[in-house]
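Forum > Structural Biology > Help requests

Title: Can anyone predict the 3D structure of MIP/aquaporin family protein?

Hi all, first post here. I have the sequence for MIP/aquaporin family protein but no way to get a structure on my laptop. I'd be grateful if someone could post the structure tokens.
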Amino acid sequence: MSILIAEILGTMLLILLGNGVVANVVLKGTKGNNSGWIVITTGWALAVFVGVVVAGPHSGAHLNPAVTIALATAGKLSWSLVPEYIAGEMIGAMLGAFLVWLFYRDHFNATEDEGGKLACFSTGPAIKNTVSNLISEIIGTFVLVFVIFYLAGPSLDIIGGVDARAIIGLGSIGAVPVAFLVWVIGISLGGTTGYAINPARDLGPRIMHAILPVKGSSDWGYAWIPIVGPVIGCVIAALLYVALV
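Reply #1:
Sure, ran it for you. Structure tokens for MIP/aquaporin family protein below:
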């Protein structure tokens, strides 16, 4: 169970269950059709819980390039490990998206709404406004990462060039607090862009949407926002945390 494998499995479960709840709510003919935003935000929170439980002891369960970049920016993770983490997160996100499509394939075929089908893979704005959408992703990711730093605690313990808390990462604080954090971000800040707050969570499934036989545009014109926004937000959070402690 290497860092790469742990991040693949953890992120795969995150996307399978997270995008799975979106599919259950959005797609035609499912048992959960039209069950609402609270169901979606709760499903995503619990999806984070599951991913952290599996990957936490082995990689720290970053499951998110924004978390990985923030830890490296704060000096808690060697930059040499960042590519391995992000590779695992991207592969896991793509695998999870494929499994969502496989699981709900009949319902994808029965659904005419192309936008709804894209929502089962990646995020999109409720109102298209580039500046506002970017700000939403920056603020949402800032809250995620900044609070994670304080949940994990300020002390450092370097082992072999890697901070021990970065290795344990989210698992060191327990999966439940992180699930609550993601839940409240979704409920409070998710209404504008769908709170990607995770470049891999959006980009990996969007790539799979383009590859798989799912009709409709993958909206590549918007795709940079849930990548750039979270990266900016996580760096701001890391720099502020370092300045304060």
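The chain is about 70% helix and 0% strand. Residues 3-26 form the longest helix (24 residues).
Shout if anything looks off.
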